[in-house]
Structures are given as C-alpha cells and as structure tokens.
Amino acid sequence: MFSKYKPTWMIEAIYQLTPEQLKKHNIKGILTDLDNTLIAWNNPKGTKEFHDWMNQMENAGIPVIVVSNNNRRRVSKAVEKINLDFIHGALKPLSFGIHRGVDKLGIDANQVVMVGDQIMTDIRAANAAGIRSILVKPIVNTDSWKTKFNRGMEKIVMRHLLKKHPGMIWKGDLE
Length: 175
Prior knowledge:
Blueprint: E1 9-11, H1 19-24, E2 29-32, H2 48-59, E3 64-67, H3 72-79, E4 85-87, H4 96-105, E5 112-116, H5 119-129, E6 132-136, H6 145-164
Parallel strand pairs: 1-6, 2-3, 2-5, 3-4, 5-6
C-alpha cells in the first residue's frame, strides 16, 4: 500500500544534482516541484544557489520544467525571470501534470525524473506516471497552510516506508 509513495532516491537538496549524476542514470530531463523544492515557498525569486544550479542544467542541455499544483499567476511570477517552462494546476498526486511535463520535454518517460519535497504529492504523482523520483528535504522548515496537513500524513507514511525499506536514507547524490 505505501510503496506508491516510495521515492527512487532521497537527496538533501535539488542543488546537489549534477549533470554527471543525471547522465550516469540516463536522465535527460527534470520535472520539479516549485515550492520548497526549487525555491522556498516564501521566496519566489530564489537564491544564488538556485540560479547557479539552473545555469548548470542549461549549460549541460538538461531541460527543467516546473510541475506545480499552484495557479498560473503564482508559478509564472516565480519563473518568469529565468524563462523556465512550467505546468500549473498539475493536480498532484494524480499523474496528469507529470504526463503533461513529459510530453513538453519530448523525451521518453524513462529518461525523466520528478524532484519534489513531498511524498504525498510529488513522489506519488511520479510513481503513478511510471517515472523515477527524487525526494528532497524542504528548503525551509515552514510550509504554506495548504501543505501542513500533507506533512502530518507524510510522517506516518515515512515511518511505514522506513520499516519496510531501511536503505531509504538521505544522501548527497544519486549514488
């Protein structure tokens, strides 16, 4: 029952992903959640680390598309200055937004990874869509009011997953 919430990998932060790691795992495109994964939910402009990581992916030819449950206005405001493509109203944990993202990337789903900070939405949606996933720790320890319920459920699910899969540990890379 809980296996539909199990991430393929768990790393501390999206910014630890490098083009070399991705290429080693035949990943040619990234779908990512926005809030608390790519940027802090309360800092829509992002940090220097965010901009450096985006430049690294762009220079390596690895496209990044935001897949967010947020509305168009919120997502476009966050990504407009870096010309980042996005899917808004993704309906995660359903696979609808993930499939749209894979279609936009124009590459095989087995060459795409979804990165997110929530197992209840991001990881569940990736698993439902049949693509690999990376769970990251939230950038900040606070959440918008919409996310607080999910965080409580996430703790219960993680306890069950960790009992069944003791190898699920936070790492600094995909190895």
